[in-house]
DNA sequence: TTTTGAGTTGTTCGA
DNA sequence: GTCGAACAACTCAAA
């Protein structure tokens, strides 16, 4: 038997040492720490990490292992088998982890907890990943919120997030050899074609710290106006770091609040409310696990989705003939990332103008986004489709041309990702089909050859979407 | 229980 | 070019 008790710390979406409540508690117990990560694709079912996420995850786990001086045991397989066996084999006294909201994890973790407890092992779980514990926020009558504003203004008001915890000092790590673990074989690289140098991401806790520092220095002050502009880098770019828990929302919140001077007041509030949307998505997924696949509003079960694989493929490939949509979809394919404003435009186009089921889009994003997050992705797609928690006005249908003119006024963003249109004048950069023949010719663009003609007509497809929505309103449908 | 006010992100039309 | 109004009906939150 070991001289000191052994505590397993099970890392999941909290790949950091600082402000990690599970790690902090385990270290504080005086036990020898045995850190573990498990690639559990089997129990994840349909929602294991997508292709792009795998690239990130692999790097981030490696970075975490380095911070832990190589002590991280990395396994591949069913956590419900690996963890109890490991706990038995090493004679663990306790197992620590931070809770997640993905339905498959909630179910799995509950079963593992019971199993371990029956074996006499102490389980210690924490809320490591959200400012407001999704299970704790509730209306006065005890039921969960379905609308953002009251959730944020009321539900979260009296719950004050914790101060970030320091990284534990003098971690007593288990250094014994462990031939059974340490499956270092990385998952297949997901996006073999994408150029790592191009996007400049650095997965891991240090990378997250750098991105946050950069945002505080140069991004925050203009965040309120710039966040909607894909042509200038006005967003925080924290999303993948937050998703994998390389930085906690508590750390981000605290850092941002420190900057809440007079000038940055609005920007800070705006940014914190964006962080709160992440909280709201987690709240929704926690309370409505069917969010990933069922319309939250049941009447949408009879929405007349079309199923057209040609249209879906054109959308996926960035070949719809609408530059703003195509630029976004190509940015996604090339870099594993898409600017938030463009996500809404591209998503709205698929769901409203093409009448394709939101689940088709959600699946594509899940697979292609480095920051794919089940709560954010599911909640946001339902929001765009109008079947989500809050009743979006039925008439909110984005026009990719007006959105382009408004948020990419010089066409810089389009030109970056749709280079075949690069020499087109600003006036036509968002609507090449309206350009006179001689303009197209001098820009060297043959519509239908170099760049597609629009696959649907905007006004007609908008009317069609409005009709589809009003068909839902009819009683007894 | 009933009632009232409100609901992230938009577009179009006509004055 | 700018600006305000219209665009369904519904659900949720809270009084």
Topology:
Elements: E1 6-11, H1 21-28, E2 32-39, H2 41-44, H3 51-67, E3 73-76, H4 79-90, E4 94-98, H5 103-118, E5 122-126, H6 148-155, H7 196-199, H8 205-219, H9 223-226, H10 239-243, H11 249-258, H12 265-287, H13 309-317, H14 323-335, H15 340-353, H16 358-368, H17 374-385, H18 400-407, H19 412-417, H20 437-442, H21 458-473
Parallel strand pairs: 1-2, 1-4, 2-3, 4-5
The chain binds a DNA duplex (15 and 15 nucleotides) through α6, α12, α15 and α21.
What does this structure look like?
With 477 residues, this protein is mostly helical. The protein is 46% helix and 6% strand. It contains 21 helices and five strands. The protein has helices at residues 21-28, 41-44, 51-67, 79-90, 103-118, 148-155, 196-199, 205-219, 223-226, 239-243, 249-258, 265-287, 309-317, 323-335, 340-353, 358-368, 374-385, 400-407, 412-417, 437-442, 458-473; strands at residues 6-11, 32-39, 73-76, 94-98, 122-126. The chain has a five-stranded parallel β-sheet with strand order 3-2-1-4-5, sandwiched between helices. Helix 5 (103-118) links the parallel strand 4 and strand 5. Helix 11 (249-258) packs antiparallel against helix 12 (265-287) and helix 16 packs antiparallel against helix 17. The chain starts with 5 loop residues before the first strand and ends with a helix. It binds a DNA duplex (15 and 15 nucleotides) through helix 6, helix 12, helix 15 and helix 21.
In short:
This protein has 477 residues and is mostly helical.
Helical content (DSSP H or I, runs of 4+): 40-55%
Largest sheet: 5 strands, parallel
Q: Which percent band covers the strand fraction?
A: 5-15%
Q: Which blocks of ≥5 consecutive residues have pLDDT under 50?
A: none
What strand line-up does the widest sheet have?
3-2-1-4-5
What's the overall geometry? globular
Class derived from helix and strand content: mainly alpha
